[in-house]
Amino acid sequence: MIALSLAEIAEVVGGQTHDIPDPSVQVTGPVVRDSREVEPGSLFVAFVGERVDGHDFAAAVVEAGAAALLASRPVGVPAIVVDDVQAALGALARHVVQKFGTTLVALTGSAGKTSTKDLVAQVLQRKAPTVFTPGSLNNEIGLPLTALSATEETRFLVLEMGARGIGHIRYLADLTPPRIGLVLNVGTAHIGEFGGREQIAQAKGELVEALPEDGAAILNADDPLVRAMASRTKAKVILFGESGEADVRAENVTLTDAGQPAFRLHTPSGASDVTMRLYGEHHVSNALAAAAVAHELGMSAEEIATALSEAGSLSRWRMEVTERPDGVTVVNDAYNANPESMRAALRALAAMGKGRRTWAVLGKMAELGDESLAEHDAVGRLAVRLNVGKLVAVGGREASWLQLGAYNEGSWGEESVHVSDAQAAVDLLRSQLRPGDVVLVKASRSVGLESVAQALLDSGIEGEVAAR
After folding, report:
1. Structure confidence at residue 414 as a pLDDT band (50, 70, 90)
2. Which of 194, 238, 291, 310 has the most Cβ atoms closer than 10 angstroms to its Cβ?
3. Could you tell me the pTM of the whole model?
């Protein structure tokens, strides 16, 4: 964190100091909510959860070197006491971002947020020190914690913003006001909570509404609901996509034999060729989004293309490709799933598996509401149309819909099977996999199918990560 005294922090958050002998003591370490992450000079944020009360760790974190706690009650050790710890954390993040002039890039979308955030960060790191959201900590707690990890040297701050309802992104953008706002797409993730794609578009568009007039809205030209957001901002609009009208676009998109996308990148400053290390054609759109941000921040087409070609995946279980010594390739994309990302992963599997036997080990896509049956059925049918060798649907009702969709699509559907749980899937795969097979594992996070991928890698000699 950028160094601030306890007295300064108390003033910013409107708190009272308790048991602090010297208010001029500075917080020089990270702001953390996990007692295991405390370092000398840290500020420990004491949240009260359903199972754990952070205040109970007060003595331990100070002994470990924390300068103080941000707390909702006195705890007998140095603490800044506030009425609302979450609101105080947000106020502190806003103060730091605005005071020190870091260029803040915020992004949102129904699918691909974390992968794109990782790409944006890796490209911008070529230009200047960059801090970005770890994993997908994109909510009202994770976002300010990320912002507070910036230092005096930080030039760019890249923040992923998630939403589960109208007003969420508006709240996050108020905590950490962006200069550049990137909207990737409007899909069906969380459609059961929002009620429809139009409502999702309304929520995602809150990001561009928050931009200043001298900011930039980076919008997907290939998504009509995103493109329409241009009317909701006073900022400059930059379009990305494969459309000929896009300011930053891709031409001659192909996939390598390994399923990695290659294309000609065009920006207003020039053109250059890109061959990505990531897997799947869906990463082309993510790469164009990152390129549009980088162009706005002054990077050349050649610099951007080089960075995109060398970028990898920084977050676990997102198209994480591992090849076992026996030639079996395991694609662990089990962090989460929605209809858009499921279709993209299946297309990537089909591309990677040309001339090889392919397996799709799939589970439930959560939070689809009334669309759940139709969407699971459609994914099962798509697996058949893509000639995936075998579908293994894992779990309960939703998995049965996946399997039924495959079965009803045609005779190939007889190659689909429905199993009760992850262990049953592992047992089936261990008995039937053969050298050269490609296995995709994907479902919503709650299903926990990453255990299937790990079991496949643990079942023989430890595999070697082919690409991250």
Report:
1. low
2. 291
3. 0.87
